[in-house]
Specification:
There is one protein chain. The chain is mostly helical. Helix content is 69%, strand content 0%. The chain has nine helices and no strands. α3 packs across α4 and α8 packs across α9. The radius of gyration is 20 Å and the shape is elongated.
Length: 189
């Protein structure tokens, strides 16, 4: 039985920088499934996410020299995938104009037990039902940890629009969870 050699990330990166195709394949295989999940959060469907993933890895390999070893390498790749996803969206989909709106009102509360019992697949399904603009801002802020200032720069909107989009996305998600709660517990919501 032949054992595959194992490399540290630093060894793998050095081999990739030297242009070794096998090392690039190993790096791709190590991170592709996680990064496809990142791309899926921004894409319309799996095929589009796979296209973004491929372009993202091309950028990863082109820019390996810019990785300075500060922070995790996976985080560095994730950032590239997010930027590639947004760039792909800008090129291939119409961005809807967004106005700054202050939406504070009486929002219904959600039973924490319902949230605790939701699995990630159900939650991602709800997020994927958001309109593309809301979904993009929600993902950037709530999942990928960008600030409203960073989101404004990345997406090309104002900070206020980013905050407004996030607020509206959260309100829509709450409404959807409350509807699910009603179905689970047998009352109309």
């Amino acid at each position: 039985m032949l054992l595959k050699p194992t490399y540290t990330i630093d060894e793998l990166l050095n081999r990739c920088k030297a242009g070794e195709r096998k090392a690039q394949e190993l790096l791709y295989k190590q991170f592709a499934s996680k990064m496809l999940g990142v791309c899926m959060r921004y894409a319309i469907d799996k095929m589009e996410a796979e296209d973004v993933l491929q372009n993202g890895f091309i950028n990863v390999f082109k820019n390996l020299d810019s990785y300075r070893g500060k922070g995790s390498f996976e985080g560095w790749i994730r950032r590239i995938m997010v930027h590639c996803s947004i760039e792909h969206y800008r090129k291939h989909h119409k961005m809807m104009p967004v106005a700054d709106v202050d939406e504070k009102g009486n929002e219904p509360s959600v039973n924490p037990v319902v949230i605790a019992n939701m699995d990630a697949k159900d939650l991602m399904s709800l997020i994927n039902q958001l309109s593309p603009g809301y979904r993009m801002v929600f993902n950037l802020f709530a999942i990928d940890g960008y600030s409203h200032k960073e989101i404004a720069e990345i997406v090309g909107i104002t900070e206020g629009a980013s905050k407004s989009q996030l607020s509206r996305a959260r309100a829509i998600l709450k409404e959807q969870v409350i509807k699910m709660e009603g179905k689970i517990y047998g009352y109309a919501g």
